[in-house]
């Protein structure tokens, strides 16, 4: 995994990349500033998970791929496919924005507008870019903690038909695979990927709970992605209108999983989660390529249904349905400014605007405690940004954005940062600061529970101001060290009023901490990266720690890749990729807690610390085929990241992947 501390408005350390084989993905970041920018010249904390990382470390879901990202804390309350919340730098799970190729994915029907990281499979993903820190000045609402951008596989430019695929199976009756192809024919390129996963899963109710029935919660998941693009014309230095590219993407995903009902298992309790997502966009180069302008229309639909019927273990019933829609129109521009020799180079101005619409229809709960939402809202936005390199040593990035809505007002976000390059000592100093916001969700504004709770249409956005500073240095080619400090103050946090009949902007939080990383490369085929995040996150109003935010989270990853070759197979890398994850004890706070008898207890407590040891090994069989084995949770630890829910137990997968 490439760990880099980079991004758009912060002077922080770059958690370095692990050594890679030839033909790596270009060392640029798109998500931080909207334009591809060299990683070492972006002042924000960013981690890149490449396609190579996904395969060599055996990542299957988005939650798998993000578990070792510095500053990122994943909490999955249930088995595979069930809700996995992401807490970035101690912010709430609703404070991270997830994108697909730059287009928002967060589910509008979720009561908090949060994202389920346990749903997404990665067979169609080329790379994942994670930007930590405030990014609302670029992407708008929800980007208080950061942004996760899933970038879809790209078509090869030099082949008309390039198939790829994977098939694997193992313990827990797990079978999975994907198949796809891409290519370029003349001025048209295309790609299509299909993926499926079926597993019996684990019983993830804590064994300590006496009412545990031992029921496993399985998952059946499938996804299909298709994209096509066409290039029209070409760009020449004197052309007023150059090449135009038009491309589109359509993606469908559907998961069906068993659900746990703490403290009692309930075999009849299941959930179905379906998502449709797509966009059509254009990009035209003007003024000899100096100005690029483009338009995009996008849309997504989320449908979640949870059903339960009476059985011998429980008489409870449920038929909960959530429908959320998101539509958007965007106009984006990048203007390259002339170079002023000896003063500044690589100056780019980005600007644009757009319109977005969200709609929710949801009904859940019993007839006497029915939760309903039927609402819609529209908003518009405009943004501007600039980045440039001064005196061939200092990179500066600045951006601002105005979001205006039809019901709760407007929000202005800003971000400013710089990177000072010190090549004489192989170091970089980074600093940044910025503001961000999270709009109140449609449920928070218009939701109802029976006759006693009403949402508050007068809610304001949750807002934050933060800053960070960091340093990174290279010790020859053998090691890279980095460290950064961040400080974030969040105000107007939404919570229940004293009578629990509505919601108000009544809370504040103070979050600060550090991210530290070291990468060691003793030889060209061995790389080891360790990262450690220390965090203090507190509720200012009550002076208590925020729930599910451990003080310490750490990871240790290695890539051991000696060259092998036999029977006419070209020499290639035999890759061994161990991964150790550690999570310190975390407060459970206001969340429901259960004692060993399965009784709900109101007092605060802590979830215990825990660790996981995963190992993946990949062996080339032919020039096109690679065999692999994945063992997850080798130590079979069953700690509780959330009260009453343990991590999945030991599993092993054997498979084969190929590119032809």
Q: What does this molecule look like?
A:
It is globular and about 75 Å long. Strand 22 and strand 23 (427-438) form a beta hairpin. It has one domain (2-659): TonB-dependent receptor, beta-barrel domain (Maltoporin, Chain A, Beta Barrel), CATH 2.40.170. The protein is mainly beta and 660 residues long. It starts with a strand and ends with a strand. Mean pLDDT is 90; it is low at 1-26. It is 3% helix and 57% strand.
Give a concise summary:
This protein has 660 residues and is mainly beta.
Uncertain runs with pLDDT below 50, 5 residues or more? 1-26
**CATH level-1 class:** Mainly Beta
Question: Which range best describes the helical content: under 10%, 10-25%, 25-40%, 40-55%, 55-70% or over 70%?
Answer: under 10%
Could you tell me the radius of gyration in angstroms?
24 Å
Main beta-sheet strand count, sense and barrel state: 22 strands, antiparallel, barrel
What number of domains?
Answer: 1
Distance between the termini: 24 Å
Q: What is the CATH superfamily classification?
A: TonB-dependent receptor, beta-barrel domain
Strand content: over 45%
Q: Could you say what the CATH architecture is? A: Beta Barrel
- CATH-defined topology: Maltoporin, Chain A
Instruction: Give the overall shape.
Output: globular
Q: Give the strand tally.
A: 41
The average pLDDT is: 90
Q: Counting H and I runs of at least 4 residues, what is the number of helices? A: 4
Question: Which terms summarize this structure?
Answer:
mainly beta, Maltoporin, Chain A, six-stranded mixed beta sheet, 4 helices, 41 strands, 3% helix, 57% strand, disordered N terminus
């Amino acid at each position: 995994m490439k760990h880099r501390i980079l991004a758009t408005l912060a002077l922080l350390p770059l958690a370095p990349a692990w050594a890679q084989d030839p033909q790596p993905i270009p060392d640029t970041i798109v998500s931080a500033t909207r334009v591809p920018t060299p990683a070492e010249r972006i002042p924000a904390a960013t981690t890149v998970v490449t396609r190579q990382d996904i395969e060599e470390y055996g990542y299957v879901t988005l939650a798998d791929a993000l578990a070792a990202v510095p500053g990122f804390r994943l909490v999955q309350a249930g088995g595979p496919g069930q809700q996995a919340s992401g807490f970035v730098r101690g912010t709430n799970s609703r404070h991270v924005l997830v994108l697909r190729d730059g287009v928002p994915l967060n589910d509008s029907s979720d009561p908090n507008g949060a994202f389920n990281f346990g749903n997404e499979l990665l067979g169609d993903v080329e790379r994942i870019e994670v930007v930590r820190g405030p990014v609302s000045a670029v992407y708008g609402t929800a980007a208080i903690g950061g942004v996760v951008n899933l970038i879809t596989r790209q078509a090869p430019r030099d082949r008309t038909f390039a198939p790829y695929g994977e098939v694997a199976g193992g313990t827990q009756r797990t079978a999975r695979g994907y198949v796809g192809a891409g290519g370029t024919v003349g001025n048209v390129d295309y790609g299509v990927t299909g993926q499926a996963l079926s597993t019996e899963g684990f019983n993830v109710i804590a064994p300590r709970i006496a009412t545990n029935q031992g029921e496993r919660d399985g998952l059946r998941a499938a996804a299909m992605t298709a994209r096509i693009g066409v290039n029209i014309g070409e760009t020449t230095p004197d052309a007023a209108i150059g090449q135009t590219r038009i491309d589109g993407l359509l993606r469908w995903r559907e998961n069906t999983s068993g659900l746990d009902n703490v403290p009692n298992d309930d075999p009849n309790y299941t959930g179905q989660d379906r998502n449709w997502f797509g966009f059509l966009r254009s990009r035209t180069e003007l003024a000899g390529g100096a100005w690029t302008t483009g338009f995009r229309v996008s849309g997504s639909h989320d449908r979640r249904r949870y059903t339960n019927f009476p059985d011998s273990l429980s008489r409870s019933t449920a038929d909960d349905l959530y429908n959320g829609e998101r539509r958007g129109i965007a106009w984006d521009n990048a203007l390259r400014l002339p170079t002023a020799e000896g003063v500044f180079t690589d100056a780019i101005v980005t600007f644009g605007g757009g319109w977005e619409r969200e709609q929710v229809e949801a009904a859940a709960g019993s007839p006497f405690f029915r939760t309903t939402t039927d609402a819609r809202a529209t908003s518009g936005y405009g943004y501007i940004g600039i980045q440039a390199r001064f005196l061939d040593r200092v990179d500066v990035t600045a951006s601002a954005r105005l979001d205006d809505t039809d019901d709760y007002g407007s929000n202005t976000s800003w971000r400013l940062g710089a990177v000072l390059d010190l090549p004489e000592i192989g170091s970089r100093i980074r600093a940044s600061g910025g503001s961000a916001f999270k709009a109140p969700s449609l449920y928070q504004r218009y939701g109802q529970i029976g006759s006693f709770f009403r949402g508050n249409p007068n809610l304001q956005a949750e807002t934050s101001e933060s800053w960070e500073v960091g340093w990174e240095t290279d010790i020859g080619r053998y090691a890279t060290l980095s460290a950064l400090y961040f400080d974030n103050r969040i105000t107007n946090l939404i919570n229940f009023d004293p009578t629990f009949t509505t919601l108000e902007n009544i809370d504040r939080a103070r979050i600060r901490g550090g991210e530290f990383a070291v990468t060691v490369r003793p030889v060209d085929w061995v790389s080891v990266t360790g990262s450690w995040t220390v965090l203090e996150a507190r509720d200012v109003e009550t002076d208590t720690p925020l729930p599910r935010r451990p003080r310490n989270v750490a990871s240790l990853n290695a890539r051991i890749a000696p060259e092998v070759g036999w029977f006419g197979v070209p020499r290639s890398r035999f890759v061994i990729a161990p991964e150790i994850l550690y999570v310190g004890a975390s407060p459970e706070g206001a969340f429901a807690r259960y004692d060993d008898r399965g009784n709900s207890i109101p007092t605060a407590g802590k979830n215990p610390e825990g660790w996981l040891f995963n190992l993946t090994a990949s062996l080339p069989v032919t020039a096109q085929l690679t065999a692999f084995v994945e063992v997850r949770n080798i130590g079979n630890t069953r700690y509780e990241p959330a009260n009453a829910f343990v991590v999945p137990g030991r599993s092993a997968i054997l498979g084969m992947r190929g590119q032809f």
